[in-house]
Amino acid sequence: MKLRLSTLILSTVLVTAPLVSHAHRAWIMPGATVLSAEKPWVTFDAAISNDIFHADHAAFRLEGLSVQAPDGAQVDLQNASVGKYRSTFDLELDAQGTYKVYTASSGLRARWVDSEGKRQSWPARGQNADSSEFTTSVPQDAKDLNVSYSSRRIETFVTAGTPSTEVFKATNEGLELVPVTHPNDLYAGETAQFTLLIDGQPAVGAEVIVLAGGMRYRNAQDEITAVSDKAGKFSITWPAAGMYWLNTSYSDSKAKAPATERQGSYTATFEVLPQ
Amino acid sequence: MKKTLSTLLGASALLVAPVLALTSFSSNGASFEVQVELPTMDVAEYHAPYVAMWLQSSDKTVTNLALWYDKDMRNDEGQQWLKDIRQWWRRSGRSLSLPADGITGATRKAGSHKIDFAPLKAELAKLPAGDYEFFIEVVREVGGREIISIPFSLPVTSTQNFNEKGSSELAQVSLTVTP
User: Fold this and answer.
1) How do residues B91-100 score in pLDDT, each as one tens digit?
2) I need a labelling partner for B165 at 20 to 30 A (CA). Which of A10, B28, B37, B148 fits?
3) Which residues form the signal peptide (chain A) (predicted)?
C-alpha cells in the first residue's frame, strides 16, 4: 500500500476536523435539579471538556457566572473553588421556585488577513471587546475583514419545590432559549418543547444538538438533533433518564454596524428523570 | 406557591361543584381502605421506606391519601428526600406545604399495615363520579423504588376489592372501595 505523506495528512485533517470543531464543550452541571425541603442546597461542577460531563480539559471560569433567584434577585455562589480541570460551587435555595445559573456575554469580533498574509483577530482570544477600540484596533481596509457581533450563553436550571417561570424572561440580547416545557420537569419518553430567540426575535433554522452524559462509556456520540422552525421552536424527545447537554448556534446578516454578521451560541444542561 | 391540603381539597370541591349539580351526585359516599405489605429485606442497611398514596382522576387531579416520611427529624431534614418519591413529587408533592394535615405520618417498617383514611373520610366521600387510579409509590434509602397503580371507577354499587403484588419494594397492596 503506497500513500503519499500529503495524502495522509490531508485525510487526517478531514477526519479530525469534525472532532476539533465539537471539542472543548463548556458546561455547568448541577448535582440535582429537582429539590425538596425548605432551603435545600445544590452543588455544581463546571468545566470545559471534550467528553460531556467528564472534566478533562480546563476549569470553568467563575467570574462571569451569575445566579438568578425565582424573584429575579441575584444570588451569591458559595464555597466556590477553581481546580485544574473543574470548578465547583454550592447554592442554598432560600426561596421556593426555579433558579437560573448562567454566564452570558456578547460583543464585537473581527477577523482579517494582514499585509504579511497572517490571520488576525480582535479582541484577543479570551478577551472581551471594547467597542470604542474597534476603529483603532482593527484596520478598516484589511483584506478579508469580517466583523461580527457574537453572543454566548451557557446555563442550567434548578428548582426547589414548585417550578416557577420568572427566570425564563428573555433579556432580548443574543441567542436565548425560552422553555415551553419546564426544564426541571423533564421525563424519559416525554417530549419537551423550547423556543430560540435571537435579540428577542425567533431564531429560525438553528441546528440544535443534544448529547447524553456518560460518553466515555459508549462508542458513539449518539447525538439527538433538531432544527428550530419559523417560530424558533424545536422539540426534543428524551430517550432515557440522565443528564443532557444541549448546544446550538445561529448566525445571520442582520447585524448592527459596524458588524455585518450576527452570531449566537447557546449551551444548557438538563436533567431528565425516570418515570 | 404554598397550599395546605385543606385548601387543595377545598379548591377541588369548588371546581367539581357545577359537575355535581349537573349529575345530581351530591356524594358518592364511598369509603376507602388500603392494606399495604412492605417486604422484609435481607439487607445490611435497612431504612423504613418513604411512601406516598394518592388518587388521581382522569384529568390528573390528585387527592392525597398518605405520606410517610421522616417527619420528626431536626430542621425538617427528612423533607430533603421527598423528591425521591418522584412520581408523587411531580403530581402533587412539589406544590404541597408540609406537614399536610390528615395525610402525613411517620415511616413504617416491614410488615402489613392497614389504613382507613379516617381523617379524609368526608372529603373522599365527595369525590365526583368518574375514572380514577389509586397510586402507591415506595422509595427506600439505599434501596429501590416501586410504584403500583390500581384503576377503578366511582361510584361503586357493591364493595370492590383490588389486589396487586409488588416485585421489589412492595410485597402486596389491596384496595377496598365500599359504597
Assistant:
1) 999 998 877 7
2) B28
3) 1-23
